[in-house]
Amino acid sequence: DSGVTQTPKHLITATGQRVTLRCSPRSGDLSVYWYQQSLDQGLQFLIHYYNGEERAKGNILERFSAQQFPDLHSELNLSSLELGDSALYFCASSVNSLRNQPQHFGDGTRLSIL
Amino acid sequence: EDKVVQSPLSLVVHEGDTVTLNCSYEVTNFRSLLWYKQEKKAPTFLFMLTSSGIEKKSGRLSSILDKKELSSILNITATQTGDSAIYLCAVVSNTGTASKLTFGTGTRLQVTL
């Protein structure tokens, strides 16, 4: 158990809908990262938050947004969902900003768009 | 654009064999290289290699970083069926005030009896 908690485990919804994925980092970790993993593209970095502030953006679509709250949990919001958004979404946390500290991953949320 | 390439994409070996997985990278402002093992769920951390620690070993697993060749290998000796997984290589690079992690697509290892 990595100590990173993601909910829900599995989400099934229709195109055009909006969903929120939630992540609680390990105790003491200030950084939260979001990744998308699809069969054909591997793990793609989406966004990084550190202590409530956005620090880096990767290949994140404009339809997606995230935030990190004062209690350090994070939410990833996906809107106007398309079939291609079906993927496994991982959250990872680390103590600080990856300066010689590894990330620890949650079990992921599997998003299925029908 | 930062790039991490792993090879082979997939391999099948018999239990007891030794395997070597490769990872090469092209990134700006390299900081460290990490290896993860992914079974059914989340990637689990194996090793972190930096300029000050270019070789790591844990049980039957070991890894070496070659900063000159911009590559790393992950060795698994006396493989067991429990080693079957996708092995991910990732590189940490600096992007101004933040760090970025770029993953390779992974090597799928299957260990058979």
Largest interface: A-B, 26 and 25 residues
State the secondary-structure class of chain A.
mainly beta
Distance between termini of chain A?
A: 31 Å
What's the main sheet of chain A like? 7 strands, mixed
Helix content of chain A: under 10%
The overall pLDDT average of chain B reads: 91
Rounded to an integer, what's the Rg of chain B over CA atoms? 14 Å
Strand content of chain A: over 45%
Name the assembly state. heterodimer
Number of helical runs of chain A? 0
Helix residue percentage of chain B: under 10%
Shape of chain A: globular
- The total of helices of chain B stands at 0
Distance from N terminus to C terminus of chain B (CA atoms, Å) equals 41 Å
Rg for CA atoms of chain A: 13 Å
Structural category of chain B is: mainly beta
| Unreliable runs of chain B | none
| Major sheet summary line of chain B | 6 strands, mixed
How would the global form of chain B be characterised? Answer: globular
Strand share of the residues of chain B? over 45%
Return the average pLDDT of chain A rounded to an integer.
Answer: 91
